[in-house]
Amino acid sequence: LSLALYASNLCSATLLYHDYCVIGAGPSGLQAAYFLQQAGRDYIVFERSHAPGSFFSLYPRHRKLISINKQHTGKANSEFNLRHDWNSLLTYDRQLLFRHYSSDFFPDADAMVRYLEDFASRLKLQIQYNTAIIHVALETDEQAWNGHYFILTDQDRQNYKCSTLLVATGMWVPNVVNFPGSEYVEGYETVSINPENFAGQTVLILGRGNSAFETAENILGVTNFIHMVSRSRVRLSWATHYVGDLRAINNGLLDTYQLKSLDGLLEGDLEDLAIVKDKKGKLHITLRFYLEDRNNSAGIDSITLPQDELDNFATRAPYDRVIRCLGWKFDFSIYNRSLKIMPEKGDKKKYPQIKPSYESRGTRGLFILGTASHSVDFRKSAGGFIHGFRYTTRAVHRLLENRHHGVPWPSTVYPITQLTNSIIKRVNEASGLYQMFSVLADIILLRENATAFEYLEEYPVGILAELETQTGRKATNGLFVVIMEYGRNFSGADKDVFYYNRAVGEAQHAWQSNFLHPVIYHYKHLPTEHEMILRPPGWPLPRPASIHHIVEDFLTDWTAPNAHILPLRRFLENCLSTDLRNFFAESCFLFAFTRQRVPPFCQQGYVRMQGLVGSEELQRHAVDAGLMENFTPNDFSGEGTPDSHHWPQDQLLRDQVIAIRHLVNAKDE
């Protein structure tokens, strides 16, 4: 019996259980751990290295991040400032803002390593270091949250059991193109970063992204010349409005190319290339079909090169080095086939297939976080970068809180009179809407008779049709969706974004706005999944009952009374068939006797003794400004007759409210 009990305990000890398992302690893994810890959930983070953020200890190779770290914005609003802080993770601890770790606009990667280490230690996140998960499989169990458990195995053959799996491993497997002679190519991950090692050399770089241009920038001043080859044309981030495209900090090679200083860019399919090495160690570029049906051991003298037929072939000069800078892809190797994790198609094949909710298409309960989740908004928004996935990670946490713990999506209920103010406040300060434009949106759920509304922040628009089941909130009386968008035809590698009259300043032409601006969609019912599928090309949402663009603003400050607020309020009033203006008590008192329907502000405020009671000075100002008529009665001249101006203001309000209550009740009867 003792031996049996010992064996039983031993078996149970080899399978450690947690509700949530997170693979990877990079930025997205730490962000997920923070939210799980704040919610008091049972979780563990597995990190293969001895410290968090190990990717940043090596990359970028030349140590300069391209995520901006703006120290000053002229505002003290912390939510607004996150719009221009692309490195901080979301936390209640204001000391864990990246600005305390570096003052550089483009900070050093070592500062990111220190920041992530402090984030993990200061918040006491549950991280198990030196644990490399080498295999993930499923164990079917009808009692499990998702109908199965995830079984994880580490390098020491220790097994772990989880109900929900959050994959935050990022993209760390180098993209490699195999062609004849590819063995002569050096990888970005191992190539020397000492410019002196390239002095007087001729270099060919394969790739056209930031890592390629970063490498070129480092050796630009010491090489004979640099050529860069890729299958697609260069994409400038200021033209595409996609932060993953080429940034200005790395584009020195474009100057030397266009100003004819020997360097150059070429387009071609890398799989069609071949590299041949001569006796002097020089590398010659040829095409694969020239090597077909030839002896691989044959010398270069017996191989036909393109310049033998076309004497001005662009890459006819031999190279000293060829460097591969083709980016990264997701590691699919550790997942058992039972998980059905498949790569996306086309340009997204380096990412795993996931739904707009960031859940795997093949396995319920498996969510992809961070850079690897970028297929949802690839080349559209910032979901592949810290300043984007910190918000999508929070969205995933809120979805899980509702699914597994019955905690509805956070929301706030306001009276309908606060609708305009609520929208204006969010579009002027919300960082999640701003960074994850066209992907995350604020949802405004209307209550019955449009007397109040419920405000949900930063919900993934791709699963709008599933809102009720994913959030635990009801959308039975219509809704507004507040989202940020660029102009439909303003972004693209071939777009001239500096053309004359590129900005729109007139409110009546707001729908033609090019720069990032708020757009409000009004739906009378929650869109269906079929409507989401049939939405117009390039639209984040289906066609609404009504739509309103708030005109773009040079300062991204949408608070102008006439250009921004007034058109928005009138749009909302037309959708709701109501009056959303605010009124003084005197105006509400007058409306009670002159209108069949009292405006909501008077109904919800004045009738409940919450109206704005103005002083004589304020009343004169309102009359002079044309905000209200002059209702001041003439003074009584008889002795002993009190002047209404000498009555206490609160007594005037109480008397008026008593009268208006009787009047409203009489109208209702």
* Helix fraction bin: 25-40%
Computed CA radius of gyration, to the nearest angstrom: 31 Å
Number of continuous helical runs: 18
Estimated share of beta-strand residues: 15-25%
> What would you call the structural class?
alpha/beta
Function: Probable flavoprotein which may function in endoplasmic reticulum associated degradation (ERAD). May bind non-native proteins in the endoplasmic reticulum and target them to the ubiquitination machinery for subsequent degradation.
Protein name: FAD-dependent oxidoreductase domain-containing protein 2
InterPro entries: Auxin_biosynth/cation_transpt (IPR050982), FAD/NAD-bd_sf (IPR036188)
GO biological process, one term: ERAD pathway
Can you walk through the features of this model?
With 669 residues, the protein is α/β, with parallel strands linked by helices. Mean pLDDT is 89; it is low at 1-13 and 635-649. 26% of the residues lie in helices and 17% in strands. The chain folds into four domains: 16-172 and 329-401, 3-Layer(bba) Sandwich (FAD/NAD(P)-binding domain); 182-326, FAD/NAD(P)-binding domain; 411-576, no CATH class; 585-625, no CATH class. It contains 18 helices and 22 strands. A hairpin with a 4-residue loop joins strand 5 (148-154) and strand 6.
